[in-house]
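User:
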Amino acid sequence: MADIEGMKDAKQFAQDVEFSSSGNFHVKGAANLDWGMKDRLSRIFRPDTGKTVMLAFDHGYFMGPTSGLERLDLLIPDLAEHADCLMGTRGAIRTSAPANYNKSIALRVSSGSSVLQDDLSKESLVVSMEDAIKMNASAVAVQTFIGADGQKETIEALNQAVNLGSRYSIPTMGVVAVGKEMERTTRFFLLATRMLAEFGVQIVKTYYCDDFEKVASTTPVPLVVAGGKKVPEKDALTLASNSIRSGAAGVDMGRNIFQSENPKAMIQAVNKVVHEGMSDKEAYEFYLHLANPEK
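Assistant: Predicted structure:
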């Protein structure tokens, strides 16, 4: 094992240099994967843009029916048309996501705690890969707590998912968890995203931070930025724009879409930012027009 004494902070990020091992495939770090993996990644990341808009509605697995997610059967069919990928639990998807929408699925396969507990970091792999195959999942998602009490257990669960996913050609999305007591610094995200990529995940879901370009340049797989807590629509679109301009391959928004005053207009505005390069200001004006067409 490498001796951590004498380790030096990273400096050579080369943010202005594109990833050099993509070959002719549009997903970062996936050139050497097998056909099945590439096929599933192509369902998540659009081949024409190399990016994705994920709609996250997996909050109920530890929060219950939070605001905006009271009726999944009404919400998901209304928004799915404008999402590239649906991120949810097997229960939510099986009951409330119409199969004929033919959307890619990022299946939440880790769990183990709830809002009734002070510590949410105790998660393990709870969904079998066989069930993920039955659901035709394009990726499985595992929450990983770096620097928290549950680090060892969640790292083991993540690696188990990577092992099983490799067996069946199903990508693993490592989700960087940030509990209320955890730091959210550039240094933390440089560590956490790189660790997950080194474990073998094909996608990392993380959070935007200062110097995000450094995080993106040192992570050899696509980064998808989480929307996080609900903020005003204008601010959420700025988050999406900053993320894409700084090297993210997409966003995975939940509360900033389904808790928006107009969720359908909001997800379409996010699409404009991610896939068409629209600025946050232009996207907000687009959102206002869709939300209030009479004005």
